Amino acid sequence: MTARIAALPGRAFVAIAGAPGSGKSTLVETLAQDLPGAMILPMDGFHYDDAVLRARDRLPFKGAPDSFDVGGLRSVLERLRGGEAKVAVPVFDRDLEISRGSARIIPAGDGPILVEGNYLLLDEAPWSALDPFFDLTVMIDVPEAELRRRLTARWEHYQLIPDQIARKLDVVDLPNGRRIREGSRAPDLVLRQG
Question: Domain AAA+ ATPase, which positions (predicted)?
Fold first, then answer.
């Protein structure tokens, strides 16, 4: 996959999507090390703040498609496509469970921009409006049993108790994973894992 991205002309935008726990962040970090000038744009930085989700009665469903500022992500993609010298982007801090605004700077350059996130290929508004920005789309496909194992380990690492983990998996993460699997546009490339 590294060679395929490197062969794209100009500053390529690569969407890497998949269910929660599919390994998107790990993959883009590895790719960024192997691709000169590559920059990472994580979709998770566009999570709405907990106060916004609470006001909308959506905090228990944080991570669902409607818990993200898709317009903000689109705006950043437009600015990057437009060749701005420096674009500040938000990054999600999982330890604090919040997005930190302007936490990373993406400078102008020739290296690819690796955009990673669950819903980048979701074939429904407003997510489908992102499609024209991507030169290559990738879906990571992981069996649900393996996702359950990985996500259980993730939430144990963050010291959630078994009831909290069960709720995260069965009400949020795995249903969102099914929505991604069943409702996304066909990618240019599928990576099967697990």
Answer: 10-162
The reported pTM is: 0.95
CATH number for 2-192 (one of 3.30.450.20, 3.40.50.970, 3.20.20.80, 3.40.50.300): it is 3.40.50.300
Q: Tell me, what's the pLDDT at 194? A: 76
Q: What stretches of the chain adopt beta strand conformation (E)?
A: 13-18, 39-42, 86-93, 98-107, 113-116, 136-141, 189-192
Report pLDDT digits (tens) over 86-115: 999 999 998 898 999 999 999 999 999 999
* Nearest partner of 154 among 32, 63, 28, judged by Cα: 63
Both tokens of 46, joined, read 């566009």
H or E element at residue 156: helix 144-157
Specify whether the CB–CB gap between 21 and 174 falls below 8 A. Answer: no
